[in-house]
Design brief:
binds 2-amino-4-trifluoromethylsulfanyl-butyric acid, 15 strands, alpha+beta, four-stranded antiparallel β-sheet, binds cobalt (II) ion, Creatine Amidinohydrolase
């Protein structure tokens, strides 16, 4: 799973660098699929319940599950990019939200709060904690900053399959839910809206958008619960060692 996670992280780094005005989401999908296959991986999403692409690309008010297509990135967009890779029969899954040019203070704060909520939740992925401790920590950080967490979509266990038990909500109560044990691997993925938490499904039956057209951000990591604390299997090299940003130095 760590090897699958390295390919996911490399793919997201490449996608981040590929985001620019005028680039289409279909082009991002092609870049990602080529990268994944060059690294001997399989794009997990492709064919999953009929999903037609290798990544999800969800701009602005779209929350998740945007099917790549002719949409051209423009200045001040934010876009959420979600990648899953299967390697040697094991899956890793992660997502980032990227700014194209300067999307303004609200969007930048939404992105920062979402990523920090993820990192704070990850910090609670410790043997003996309850899953609700993770969920509650994510929600608390989001709500304290005036944003909302999507409730109708959740994170998940991950392993040989992309979606395994348990469900990982981005809201909940401390001390509730299953006990975290060594060897569990969770995909934690806060989806955070600037306005209402409510979402709608697009005509393609995939794309999920905010009900009030407010902006949305999404960050996700695949995280192993180890005896030495949480291990992020989809961390980019920059997140991986010393020199981490404040949000990442939580354990
Ligand atoms: N990270 C998303 C999830 O956990 C990716 C799935 S997209 C799909 O649900 F297209 F494959 F469904
Ligand atoms: Co996921």
């Amino acid at each position: 799973m760590a090897r699958a996670g390295e390919v996911v992280a490399g793919c997201l780094a490449l996608l981040r660098d590929s985001c620019a005005e005028g680039v289409t989401t279909a082009e991002l999908d092609r870049v990602a699929e080529n990268f994944i296959r060059e690294h001997k991986g399989i794009p997990t999403f492709k064919g999953y319940r009929g999903y037609p692409a290798s990544i999800c690309a969800s701009p602005n008010q779209m929350v998740v599950h945007g099917i790549p297509g002719p949409y051209e990135l423009k200045f001040a967009d934010i876009i959420s990019l979600d990648v899953g890779v299967t390697l040697g029969g094991w899956v890793a899954d992660a997502a980032i939200t990227v700014a194209v040019g300067d999307p303004g203070p609200l969007a930048l704060r939404l992105m920062e709060v979402t990523e920090t909520s993820l990192m704070r939740g990850i910090a609670r992925c410790v043997v003996g904690n309850h899953l609700g401790d993770v969920s509650h920590t994510v929600e608390e950080h989001v709500v304290a900053n005036g944003f909302t967490v999507v409730r109708s979509l959740v994170g998940h266990g991950v392993g040989r399959e992309m979606h395994e038990d348990p469900q990982v909500p981005n809201f909940g109560a401390e001390g509730e839910g299953p006990l975290l044990k060594e060897g569990m691997v969770l995909a934690i993925e806060p989806m955070v809206n600037a306005g209402t938490h409510k979402v709608t499904v697009g005509e393609d039956k995939w794309a999920i958008s905010t009900a009030d057209n407010s902006l949305s951000a999404h960050f996700e990591h695949t995280v192993a619960v180890t005896r030495n604390g949480p291990r992020i299997l989809t961390a980019s090299k920059a997140e991986d060692g010393a020199g981490l940003g404040a949000a990442h130095r939580l354990w």
